User: Fold this.
Amino acid sequence: MKKAIIVMTGILLMSTLAIAETEAGKKESVEIPNLEQLQKMIARFAPTEVSADTSKLSPEDQKAVVKLIQAARVLDDLYMTQLWKGNQALCARLKKDTSPLGRARLHYFWINKGPWSDLDDHKAFIPAVPARKPLGANFYPEDMTKEEFESWVKTLNEKERELATGFYSLIQRKAANKLAAVPYSVEYRADLDRAAKLLREAGSLTQNASLKKFLNSRAAAFLSNDYYQSDVDWMDLEAAIDITIGPYETYTDELFGYRAAFEAYVHVRDEAESNKLAFFAKHLQEIENNLPIEPKYRNPKIGGLAPIHVVNEIFAAGDGNHGVQTAAYNLPNDERVVAEKGSKRVMMKNVQEAKFKSVLLPISQHVLAPEAQKDVSFDAFFTHIVAHELTHGLGPQQINVSGRKTTVRLELKEVYGAIEEAKADVTGLFTLQYLLDQGQRVGIAEDRPKEEIERKLYTTFLASAFRTLRFGITEAHGRGMAMQMNYLLDKGGFAVQPDGTFAVDFSKIKQAVRDLDHDLLTLEATGDYAGAKKMLTELAVLRPETQRALDKLGDIPTDIEPKFVTAEKLAPASAGLPRKR
Ligand code: ZN
Assistant:
């Protein structure tokens, strides 16, 4: 699953009134942006090149990757159909409008893969469409209510119910207006046939056995509607080409969250980062044994870690490419597969780098003291993200509260997310500092003196804190970050300058991070819900000096609009398969 992102969008003035149709067919007036307003909305996405080096792939894999990009393009179409039944016709209509407003509408349509703006609560930005994205997308009849669905499901036998509430079917009205569940393999047969054929062709090209196996079983799943074996094979995938393709996330179905939307990611593995991960993994127990908490709370034998793949994205499609770009995901979502095989985290290094360049660097120029700006580094940013992911696996997990066996998650309840995200941030910093103190290299400016590496680590973290806070403090990451920021300010590790910019105090930051890590880990070890709640209530707030810094970030893009230059070179969209429209 992706982490939900809550986006602060500022105030958009939309003065043009237009009448749009709501789901129930009632007329509701929504304001449709004019050209100038639409251009401002588009400018929130900085066009940024996303490229990946495919030259080290074997000649067979280089051919296979072309087929995979083509298959991903099929899923782009399929996702648009899943989002809204009128999408394909609307897209064709928009393409014919060559006026500046028509061009802007088509541009923003491509960013969102539909006529509703992801960043603005899915409100329509094109006239004559439903005012807001239908909650059930195109997965249910538009006139169906929740109650009708629920009472219908009660009439079904177990097997029918499984299909009706499962990931891989949609609901339509059939004879006598009765609801019926239709498997994806039936409804999307033509597109899935094309995609399956391309996957099999790629499978016959590659020499990698695990990739061949996954591509063939996923192609079979497209036609049989049974994804279990191919999800298992995806967990076993170890290849230079890293691909995720199929129906996965259920966020598009806002009505019930049952139906999986089609998406595809075509990646190449990042070898250097894979080696770095292996290096960190070797030191994790040692870091656990040195965590800044009472020794009795340390875990003498940390559990197996969920696999992490660091990749570079060649192409993303469908549900994987609209609005704010996905930079990492955990899959699969099928609990049966997770119970048997666990899940895998995939992190896209070049997507993170694109966001770093187009969003984080400009942010740092506004919020950091001038002399600190040279220390903002992508390697420090990315290495800390990797450390964050790994250190979710460190510290207390199964705990004992007054003789009762329980887990941190159960004890901390609704504040668990914010505390655990903050713990991973801070334990990530602690881990990198620990390794540096041991004389290890961590992948940040390795040829430079230790003080410089530390400067980069903490300064980049400070800049990235503002990127997270910008998304608001209602969600776990933002809440946890506001708490860290204020704690470190209070301990003097971060300091506000007279001109309102922020800087790291290197004489205090290391101890401040140790103290914070100690406090967070101890809250988790003791399952101290009241303590965790108190800490968040006091510290997970935006203080005036932080708010003033955030106010300066208005014009900086929210995210990127990826330009997939490698994919466009290898398998141009125009030269691809004829698109059915
Ligand atoms: Zn996390």
